[in-house]
Design the sequence.
């Protein structure tokens, strides 16, 4: 039997496309960390997004991975933005325990170099939907997007919907390589911590979140718990490069942050880029349409449906698509 209390050095071996759950019990903090390589690159490269759109969708993918990987059973977590900016739609769909797919809609003509996340998205909302299967109620949390980052929106979501003190960090970048292989690859990473003290009054938060106020500003009406303050200041030292770096293991990063308090890690949960579409599912969707709508889809003697997530094309004869033939 494994010794539950064993202490070991952090593994130096980086693990891509996996979520590493952890706990810092001295600070009443639980969290998850992910480093994403091939799975992220596969989704973003498949669509050949412009770099700005790829980076933004990548951040949404990292966020969804952090949130969706906490679901049990065959739950589904869907993150969706709908906004009036050049990137009008982001959808990331996570099917527990490990399947991830995503796509973005954007207007190429409105994209300009150097746009911030807020400028790319514009104004609108972010919806996070948790679906735990047909016997469970569906939960949806909505937050307004008003020019901030996805991290800001996630903080807002946890403050309003779950009321658990939470911090999130997301980073996505392109790795450029020489040689004969692919010239560039997308990489990303992110981490989330939550303050879960046994005494619930310790987790009470101020009504207005201080957001990006400089350190030392006193905007709170309820002072943060000392342990949570310490956790947040450690968390604030994480740099984007540490989340993206293919050679820095998640365990090493956690050790750098929390070694004075001791951090316990749990087994990695692997993640894969994998679409859930199928010919049967598309046929089922066609069957649910009105007969006239099905008939309108016939072009050149066939019905072709393309999956927006993975770009797979499904071709049906009018008979297979259930189109009623005129006598
Ligand atoms: Zn698909």
Sequence:
């Amino acid at each position: 039997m494994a010794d539950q209390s064993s202490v070991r050095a952090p593994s130096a071996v980086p693990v891509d496309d996996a979520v590493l759950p952890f706990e810092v019990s001295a600070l009443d903090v639980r969290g998850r960390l992910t480093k994403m390589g091939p799975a992220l690159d596969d989704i973003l490269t498949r669509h050949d997004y412009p770099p700005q759109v790829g980076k933004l969708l990548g951040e949404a993918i990292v966020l969804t991975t952090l949130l969706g990987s906490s679901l049990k059973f065959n739950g589904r977590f869907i993150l969706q933005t709908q906004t009036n900016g050049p990137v009008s739609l982001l959808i990331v769909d996570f099917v527990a325990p490990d399947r991830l797919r995503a796509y973005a809609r954007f207007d190429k003509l409105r994209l300009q170099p150097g746009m911030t996340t807020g400028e790319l998205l514009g104004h609108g909302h972010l919806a996070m939907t948790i679906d735990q299967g047909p016997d469970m109620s569906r939960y949806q949390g909505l937050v307004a997007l008003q020019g901030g980052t996805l991290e800001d929106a996630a903080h807002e979501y946890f403050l309003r919907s779950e009321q658990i003190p939470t911090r999130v960090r997301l980073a996505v970048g392109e790795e450029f390589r020489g040689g004969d292989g692919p010239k560039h690859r997308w990489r990303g990473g992110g981490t989330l911590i939550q303050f879960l003290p046994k005494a619930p009054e310790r987790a009470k938060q101020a009504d207005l979140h201080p957001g990006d106020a400089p350190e030392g500003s006193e905007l709170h009406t309820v002072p943060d718990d000392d342990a949570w303050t310490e956790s947040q200041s450690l968390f604030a030292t994480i740099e984007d490069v540490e989340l993206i770096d293919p050679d820095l293991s998640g365990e090493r990063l956690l050790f750098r942050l929390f070694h004075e308090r001791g951090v316990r890690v749990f087994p990695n949960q692997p993640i894969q880029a994998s679409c859930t579409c199928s010919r049967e599912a598309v046929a089922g969707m066609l069957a649910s349409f009105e007969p006239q709508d099905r008939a309108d889809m016939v072009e050149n003697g066939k019905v072709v449906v393309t999956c927006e997530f993975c770009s797979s094309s499904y071709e049906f004869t009018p008979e297979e698509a259930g189109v009623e033939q005129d006598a």
